[in-house]
Amino acid sequence: MAIEHATDSTFKDMVQTEGVTVVNFWAAWCGPCKMFAPVLEKFERETNGSVKVVKVNVDENPATSSQFQIMSIPTTLIFRNGKLIFKEVGILPKAVLQQLTA
């Protein structure tokens, strides 16, 4: 699997699935987002498809960003079986992502 990109119109269907979905809210101009991207990519590769990773560009998808009250980026949300179980602002280490999605 690969990192998927959600839009305001596809977001709900992408997270309302069985299993774990990690959602990264980001923007192209965001320095910390650029630093977090390789961590997220490595995490996604190492899960071998057991965890879905979705990115949401806050500039292009204001409705989803507003729905989840995204005020700072990067922000990570984790859904389990379609239910929000975790929200954190900032760069998360890969080990933390692994622990939260286990």
UniProtKB/TrEMBL annotation:
Disulfide bonds join C30-C33. One of its GO terms (biological process) is cell redox homeostasis. Keywords: Disulfide bond, Electron transport, Redox-active center, Transport. Residues 1-102 form the Thioredoxin domain. Gene3D superfamilies: Glutaredoxin. It comes from the Bacteria. Pfam families: Thioredoxin (PF00085). Signal peptide: none annotated. One of its GO terms (molecular function) is protein-disulfide reductase activity. One of its GO terms (cellular component) is cytosol. Belongs to the thioredoxin family. This is Thioredoxin. The lineage of its organism: Bacteria, Bacillati, Bacillota, Bacilli, Bacillales. The gene is trxA.
